[in-house]
Amino acid sequence: MTAAPRPGAPVPSTDPRTGAVRAHPAREAGPADVDRAVTAAHHTLDALADRPRRAALLHTAADLLDAARPEILAAADAETALGETRLTGELARTTHQLRTFAETAADGGYLDVRIDRADPATGRPDLRRTKTPLGVAAVFAAGNFPLAFSVPGGDTASALAAGCPVVVKAHPGHPETGELCARLLRRAAERVGLPAEILTTVHGLAAGTRLVQHPLTAAVGFTGSLRGGRALHDLAAARPRPIPFHGELGSLNPVLVTERAAATRAEQIGAGLAASFTLGQGQYCTKPGLVLVPAGHPALERAAVKAAAAADAAPLLDPRIRDSYLTGAAHRAALPGVETLLPPGPAPTPAAPLAVRPGILAVAATDLHDDLLDECFGPLTVLVRYRDHADLHTALTRLPGTLTATLHLAPDEPPTETRPLLALLTPLAGRLVLNTWPTGVTVTPAMHHGGPYPAATTPTTSVGTSAIHRWLRPVTYQDTPPELLPAELRD
Length: 491
What we know:
Shape: globular
Radius of gyration: 24 Å
Strand order of the largest sheet: 12-15-16-11-10-17-18
Number of helices: 15
Structural class: alpha/beta
Number of strands: 19
Helix content: 25-40%
Distance between the termini: 50 Å
């Protein structure tokens, strides 16, 4: 990835409803700025070794974010147009994540301690295994979640819980929100006796490149586009000392509707699909972007079109994403054999001149173009009509790796028929959803938010307590005197 260096250039905060520049809350970081941030973060590793203090940091950060809710919501809505209701829920999820990882750090179970005591009879030495932090974590904030996947989000929370200081490459779509949250996290660090440098932000495309290449950066967490994420992944791999790159790069999230389900639940499935793919204007990474439906069941399609047409027109996260959505939707609609059931396009309102409306396209499984297998970010979904199991099998084998795969069944379908369908979906996704919709993600120990490439670059999760393992590596101590062992390994 290349970018013309612009150290010191102002970073604009833009109103996505109108495209007007609101303010310039930050400046682009130059090479010296990135070096200072990563080096200062590296020097906090010893301080972060105190697990109880890390837990206190995360609890305090959550409390400060909650206390600043009006200010945070105002800034985030002004920069993303996501609305107070959605952002209120996202802030609650963000503080819940912080508190959950505080409890994870305090508990210590994530260290996965293993002890094999010496056995003189066999000559086995005393072996004791724990996990240790990798070092400085570079976190790339996501555009579609200005809180839960950005500066105070899950990557940051899990890295700090693991004992890794964080340098966040802030997202250009919400720089004011990012800086506000960063100040609160640094304040939380100082309140519990930790250095403020446990978290720093840098701005600018070139700064992100330098952050991945910095010799003290130990691992990267990324949520964003396939093109940008793959470029950074390749940079991480090309370093003299390659580092883990935990990237979430895009997801089609296919849905399979059986013929019996379409015959018995057409209205319910159609309305549910519309609600899912238009949620947040289709800007969720778990949006169902491709739906395999049986041919000859127009009631389901009519229900989806009716419900989606009733959705309010709204702006996307920024003008660049809006342009990409309109261009991508128009390109897909023009492909041979593609039918437009609900035309996507601009839908200006007095309050939001840049608003858009959702779209639904349809195509026969035999005409499924490669371009329809790429995620179109925004409120667009594609119905793929299959005639038989052969159509279905051929289509599924062409799908890329994805975060989720959903199966809609009728209540009376026998397991002998549905189990093979689930077996077809399992290799594609990190989460399998039955008879509901994939757009909701819960922060729990059992949640997995990842999948085969390009959904993720490593077989890990970015949501749930297991996310902490991305920032750790195992270490075994052999025949080590007790006084030299980490506390968790002593008898």
